[in-house]
Automatic annotation (TrEMBL):
It comes from the Bacteria. Belongs to the relA/spoT family. This is Bifunctional (P)ppGpp synthase/hydrolase SpoT. NCBIfam families: spoT_relA. It comes from Usitatibacter palustris. The gene is spoT.
Length: 729
């Protein structure tokens, strides 16, 4: 009986190693297994046996036996020359998900690596999620993290998605659109990020076809019509290019290629043009023996047709992030037709088509795929960093999407190291690309020797220098203009960590106050009390409880009573309650906010409200936002100012002045002379043309400093009224 390696087709299917395989799927798979050893083929036959038995009686939407799908996925991987473990995992990839077979059973029969690959590809379908988006995001997170451990996971998943897209006609229109959108947003960009060009373009075209079926049909028809009109022109141009290269004694393989429909559609959208205005429907690829020949070929062709300025890109000297290398140039060809040329070596072409898979696909050749592997490994490692700092699956997916559309910008460090960043990346993104600590402590940047804001958008060839300060920390505003998932996740993680630390400090003060109000000594609360507290509680650490108290997610008095309910704790009835106020320094950070309604400053009598998830909100006693009839004592705590806070505080001021030229300049000058700054200014609607009322925010140290500012402003003759301004809420 022939094995899978030597096969025969029969009317009922393919007989291989005693196994009768469904005809089309098996024949195509077997034809692609010539690169494997006989013993490897036997392992794949054994995996097929398990999958065939497990999927018996299951059918696809198209009506075909379900086993044809894993066979087709394995065939795609075989075309990439992946190892037997990956092929076995491909054949078994739906067994754990759709049948009673378990991961441990697969591990026992085929080894732990195969079981891990199958598990990495399997969806999380046994957990209930609130929304479909959450479920999808969790599945992507699981897949991407498995990919970071073993890149074969994503290669199997991409092959799985490719076959599903090729057979998407069998499902209803709503699912077609959903799967196509998912493919365009996630899978095609991942294929691009890993350098799988051929796969990327096929997924893009299939995604466009099912996402916009009418537009696809219209463009496909127009392209077929244009193809007939221009076929002769492309043939003539190919001959001319070959003739010119021969004049320069260059051996090269020249091919004309048709642009993909999805690429044409994107160009029409980006440039807002019609199909008839898209001239460069064809490009030309030139394969040369070595790197020197690539540059010589480009020079030769520039003497043949004029290059279009700004359209030359050297991806050989500076490869793309996915390892892609090539020279790109666009020329003014005959008939007014722009010619897009890609010039590369044969090895570069292999990487361009297969990307990270070239490690397996061409490992028998002399080609060095280390560069591609290193680029991919760096990105995969960044996934693990982002995962460790992302709160949930949707946030993780948001960060990843940023990095999946990397229209690269190449910039340099002061020492000349090249960094690849997405288009739109800023100086902050560069700082985090260098190192997390550099990003967390950056204070300013210089681009090409000139100082720039941290939000400055970088351009190709920029040389960036980052200035750091150990006391500096990320600003929440940075999140509005960072361009990389890595920077965004690091900033969010730092802010969350700082909020947690600062909230824990405030929570400890609140808990001490609550314990004393219950006539207990805080110093007598020991580890044993906390150990009993955690029994039956969702929190695992003391810091977590204190942070919740500081953020208002727990009431301090409830935590105190629970701690005191333990057998070892007892209050001393002879000790009077000590209701010490919490001291406010002004440097507590995110755990303590000064309410914008009344803008309290040192010297004001103050009280603080515990706001769930936000910490303490400090108000003045007479703040309009405090409603006596809705006053809940458990949500308010006594606070007092630190005797000497070394901090500036914002305060709102309303000022009415005669409407004369130069008054605003004199107001600003007087405020500056009083050692204060204006943070914000706006005008109220005029009730009289003779006077103008301004509402502005100034920064002062305390009430005495504010009184000094008022005295200076009252010196101006045009000022008729000035007072603090408190907003009603």
């Amino acid at each position: 009986m022939p094995s899978l390696g030597v096969h025969t087709a029969t009317a009922s299917g393919l007989k291989a190693g005693g196994v009768s395989l469904p005809g089309p799927g098996a024949e195509e798979l077997v034809s692609a297994l010539g690169y494997l050893k006989p013993q490897d083929v036997e392992l794949i036959e054994a995996a097929y046996e398990v999958a065939r038995a497990a999927h018996a009686g299951q059918f696809r939407k198209s009506g075909e036996p379900y086993i044809t799908h894993p066979l087709a996925v394995a065939k795609i991987l075989a075309e990439w020359h992946l190892d037997p473990q990956a092929l076995m995992a491909a054949i078994l990839h739906d067994v754990v998900e759709d049948t009673p077979t378990t991961k441990s059973e697969i591990a026992k029969k085929f080894g732990k690596p195969v079981a891990e690959l199958v598990d990495g590809v399997s969806k999380i379908d046994r957990i209930e999620f609130a929304t479909l988006q959450h479920a999808q995001a969790e599945n992507f997170r699981k897949m991407l993290l498995a990919m970071a451990r073993d890149v074969r996971v994503i290669l199997i998943k991409l092959a799985d998605r490719l076959h599903n897209m090729r057979t998407l006609d069998a499902v209803h229109a709503e699912k077609q659109e959903r799967v196509a959108k998912e493919t365009l947003e996630i899978y095609a960009p991942i294929a691009n990020r890993l350098g799988l060009n051929a796969l990327y373009y096929e997924l893009e075209d299939l995604g466009f076809r099912f996402m916009h079926p009418t537009r696809f049909k219209v463009l496909d028809k127009a392209l077929k019509k244009a193809r007939g009109n221009r076929r002769d022109a492309v043939g003539k141009i190919t001959e001319q290019i070959q003739a010119r290269l021969k004049e320069f004694k260059l051996e090269a393989q020249v091919t004309g290629r048709e642009k993909h429909i999805s690429s044409i559609y994107k160009k029409m959208q980006e440039k807002n043009i019609s199909f008839s205005e898209v001239f460069d429907l064809y490009g030309f690829r030139i394969l040369v023996p070595d790197v020197a020949s690539a540059y010589l070929a480009m020079g030769a062709l520039h003497t043949m047709y004029k290059p279009i300025p700004g359209k030359f890109k050297d991806y050989i000297a500076i490869p793309k992030a996915n390892g892609y290398q090539s020279l790109h140039t666009t020329l003014f060809g005959p008939f007014g037709m722009p010619l897009e040329l890609q010039i590369r070596t044969a090895d570069m072409h292999k990487v361009a088509e297969a990307g990270v898979a070239s490690h397996w696909l061409y490992k028998s050749s002399e080609m060095d795929a280390k560069g591609v592997q290193l680029k991919s490994h760096q990105w995969l490692q960044s996934l693990l960093e982002i995962q460790s700092e992302s709160g949930d699956a949707l946030e993780f997916l948001e960060h990843i999407k940023v990095d999946l559309f990397p229209d690269e910008v190449y910039v340099f460090s002061p020492k000349g190291t090249i960094f690849s960043l997405p288009k739109g990346a800023t100086a902050i993104d560069f700082a985090y690309a260098v190192h997390t600590d550099v990003g967390n402590h950056c204070v300013s940047a210089r681009v090409n020797g000139e100082p720039v804001p941290l939000g400055h958008v970088l351009r190709n060839g920029d040389r960036i220098e980052i200035v750091t300060d150990p006391s500096a920390r990320p600003n929440p505003v940075w999140l509005s203009y960072v361009g990389t998932g890595k920077a965004r996740s690091h900033i969010r993680h730092y802010l969350k960590t700082m909020q947690s630390q600062e909230s824990a400090e405030v929570g400890e003060l609140l808990l001490v106050q609550a314990l004393r109000s219950l006539k207990a000594n805080p110093d007598e609360i020991h580890d044993s009390h906390w150990e009993r507290f955690f029994k039956g509680d969702s929190a695992k650490t003391r810091e977590e409880v204190l942070a919740d108290v500081g953020l208002g997610k727990r009431l301090a008095v409830v935590v105190a009573k629970k701690l005191l309910s333990t057998p070892d704790a007892h209050a001393d009835p002879s000790q009077p309650p000590r209701l010490d106020s919490i001291t406010i320094r002004g440097t507590e950070g995110m755990a303590v906010q000064f309410s914008p309604c009344c803008r309290p400053i040192p010297g004001d009598p103050i009280i603080a409200q515990i706001r769930k998830g936000q910490g303490l909100a400090v108000h003045t006693h007479d703040c309009p936002a405090i409603h006596p009839f809705h006053f809940d004592p458990e949500k308010w705590v006594d606070v007092q100012w630190d005797p000497a806070p070394d901090q500036l505080f914002d305060v709102n001021v309303r000022l009415t002045a005669a409407n004369q030229r130069g008054v605003l300049a004199r107001l600003a000058a007087e405020i500056s002379e009083a050692d204060s700054d204006i943070d914000h200014i706006e005008t109220e609607q005029k009730s009289s043309q003779a006077y103008t009322t301004l509402v502005f925010t100034v920064q002062v140290k305390n009430r005495m400093h504010l009184a000094h500012v008022f005295r200076r402003l009252r010196r101006i003759p045009e000022v008729v009224r000035i007072s603090r301004f408190k907003k009603k809420t």
